[in-house]
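Now for a typical sample entry:
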Amino acid sequence: MNHRFTITVARAAVIFVKSVLMHREFLVFKQVGKSPETMTTASTRQEVIEEGRKHLLIEEGRKQLLINLRRRTTREPSFKLATDTLNFLRKVVLHGTYNNLEELLALLRENGLILSGAYPSELVMRNLVLMVCKLARESNSRETNGEFDSPYDSLNKLWKKEDKENQIGRSAKTIRKKLIQAVNDIQIEMETCREHISAQGQYLVHMNDVLIVHSLSTSTTLSSFLAGAKKDKKTRVFSVQIPTEPDDHDAVSISLCEVAGKMCEATKVILSGATVFPDGSCLAPAGGLSICLAAHRHSVPVYVLCAFYKIAPFFVPDSSAVIKHSLPGLPVAMASKWAGRVRVLQPALEMIPANLITLFVSNTASIMPSHIYRLIGDYYHPDDVANY
């Protein structure tokens, strides 16, 4: 009896495994839009299965990225989000199905719209998608012409048009190889941004400066910048801390309401930016607007630290659409009492206008707010921005 029961269980397990594999194969064929009955040869069937597996791999990577964003309770550093997005786009380039540049751009644009539609407040993801599109165009052009000659770089080249017919006919294998190398170079540049920004601290911060900083415990770039500035100079630092943030830095902690009193002693204000817009405005941690207004009242210069992947190529007419709100963190007694009656808003970011900012400190140079728009052409293509 036990022997028959064991055989029955084994047969049931085999049937279950076969059904799972058949269902998996059905999903693969469904992903590519074909049915198993239409496959006449084994080689064609295998090619379709391989193509479907690549589609599923991209879809699983996108779902995992969105799930990780959904699970987080606090806003993660922009560098981690940019790294995760770039790794996903690398999968799209490697495993995506396309035959030419136009199909590759459409595939990148499709996945980018899904990401930005799910989280419109995370502008870094949108920036990375548009950067990879620009890299794809450059890789394709260099493969044919030896260099990337954009008609948008100069007024004298505006009459030239890109050779779209040749773009359609070029090999996808060659584009993929060149683009992966370019994406890897962007990854290396992202990893060295913090080091290059901190190296500028010794030139921008002078002896006996009194600095007011904000969100020091949550910004590793700001911490590195101060460390580079204090190597051979004596400075005083006032750190505007939120009560829930840890205080583990060598700085005098002050609350946001004390900023106006301490601003008369300060010589510089240093903030960490989340996103920089073409008009010179930026998104900074909540509380930064009050600090900048106080600095403007006392004529204190304001420096904003930002890496190249935080520079957005488009304007945002309504800042509330891109400002993420954090969890209020109410006590249990108050949360249970006010559940469904009161909505507590706690924005994580604030919009700071360009007239309150003196200088943007990027990984390449220090830039005035009125010159930010000049960097957009280095990282983005006008056609990609217009069609996104």
